[in-house]
Write a structure and sequence with these properties.
Two copies of one chain form a homodimer. In chain A, a hairpin with a 2-residue loop joins strand 6 and strand 7. Chain A is built from nine helices and seven strands. By secondary structure, chain A is of the alpha+beta class. In chain A, helix 1 crosses helix 9, helix 4 runs antiparallel to helix 5 and helix 6 packs antiparallel against helix 7. In chain A, the strands form two sheets. Chain A has a four-stranded mixed β-sheet with strand order 2-1-3-4, sandwiched between helices. In chain A, strands 6-7 form a two-stranded antiparallel ribbon. At the A-B interface, helix 1, helix 3, helix 8, strand 4 and helix 9 of A face helix 1, helix 3, helix 8, strand 4 and helix 9 of B. Chains A, B: This is DSBA oxidoreductase. Chains A, B: InterPro entries: DSBA-like_thioredoxin_dom, Thioredoxin-like_sf.
């Protein structure tokens, strides 16, 4: 069974949702047969590469949200995050565009390290005040993940994996996703938001129970030639 | 709608099947909404990097097939290929392991050129006696496709995209594929072999008619928070 999760790095509910989904998956009896794939999404593609101010200032000044409302939102999210063992620190958050971070995760995917990259960037952004728009931070993170330093730097300095990020975003649009995190099970069921683990658990059970093997359509027996290990017919 | 096609380069029915599928797709009214993805498969992973002999010799000497039977098979396939406008030349075929060629196609995929790469290698192998196991041939082909020469050479000289090739092959095994070409429509229907275009056409119609949008499962309204373009709730 395949689970695709559209999410952004600069998305507080995405980290919380990751923990809740992981908790459900950990308790799912067929967890070894579940493939999880992270897909890119950008909540705010208009974010500058770097913004010299706090997240509160960005949301109130640029997005026009009342400061009081922003602070209440942060308090609520921080409490929810703490419930999942996460230590959000909104005062330290560096406001940055996440596009390069998404390219970095696609590079990590190529080396089988996408989940570790996702985890590192979410933690760096929300818990440790790291700048996810800074190439040096991403290169350092890549090295910690076991990636090759020159390869990471060269890939990020150019435009590698931009197409993959854009393709993920386009696919989200095609599926009707308009907020993240968004979980897709076997392209059949969608779950919107950082739902409680029980919701994910029930969805995993349901999708598992309904999964079906491929139906091989009957073809023309005289044609329909294939080649196999023992030659072609 | 998504169509995944598992196929090998060293697979005579795969090129014929490609043409027949393309013909069906060309006549399919929703062709612009069909995404085709080539997936890797190796008919014979034990093939040496290079074999100094003809395909006939390889199949008869190494695989123990009677020469007469091999020749009849080639004649039949060559006639079928000709029916699709392809000029197979089995006397010129260079016997080579296709693993590097598959890695090359995954590199091409990153630049949106996978279909063109597949076409070039199949034609090179079956029509022009090119050596698909030769890095220089692959680099030359990459340049023709608009890829960056040093990037192609460096990727192929290392082990880049090996994981992707192996993942494709593992997925084929999981789906029960034991011969190629194998076509999978929306992970729902499978079609085995180089079927006539009409078979592909009917399958496209059927899968299109039955495609369904995601069912978004109801969650807990108070939880299930998401972030969207206008902030988080």
């Amino acid at each position: 069974m395949k689970v695709e999760i559209w999410s952004d790095v600069a998305c507080p509910w995405c980290f919380i949702g990751k923990r809740r989904f992981e908790s459900a998956l950990e308790n799912f009896e067929h967890k070894d047969e579940v493939e999880v794939q992270w897909r890119s999404y950008q909540l705010d593609p208009t974010l500058p590469q770097h913004y010299d101010g706090t997240e509160t200032e960005y949301l109130s000044e640029i997005k026009g949200m009342p400061q009081q409302q922003v602070r209440q939102m942060f308090e609520h999210v921080t409490a929810q995050a703490a419930g999942e063992g996460l230590s959000y620190d909104f005062d330290k958050i560096v406001v940055a565009n996440s596009f390069m971070a998404h390219r970095f995760m696609h590079l990590a995917k190529e080396h089988g390290r996408m989940d570790a990259a996702k985890e590192a960037l979410l933690s760096g952004h929300f818990e440790h005040g790291e700048d996810i728009g800074d190439i040096d931070y991403l290169v350092r993170t890549g090295v910690v993940l076991g990636l090759d330093e020159p390869e990471v730097r060269e890939a990020l300095a150019g435009d590698k994996y931009s197409a993959e990020v854009r393709a993920d975003i386009a696919e989200a649009r095609a599926l009707g996703v308009n907020g993240v995190p968004f979980f897709v099970l076997d392209r059949k069921y969608g779950i919107s938001g950082a739902q409680p683990a029980e919701v994910f658990g029930r969805a995993l059970q349901q999708a598992w129970g309904e999964r079906s093997p491929l139906t091989v359509l009957p073809g023309n027996a005289n044609d329909g030639a294939t080649c196999g290990p023992e030659g072609c017919n």
